[in-house]
Amino acid sequence: MISIGAVAAVVGLAVVPPAVAAPGSAGQGGVGTLASVVIPAKRIPVDNRYIPPRVGGDAEFDGNGPDVFASATLVGVGTNRLRVRIFMDAIETKSDFTHARGTSPDFLIYVAPPGQCVRSVSRGGYEEIRYRDTDHAVDAFGGQVTDSFVSGWSFVGDTDGSEAGTRTGAALTTFSFVATVQPC
Question: What does UniProt give as the signal peptide span (predicted)?
Answer without folding.
Answer: 1-21
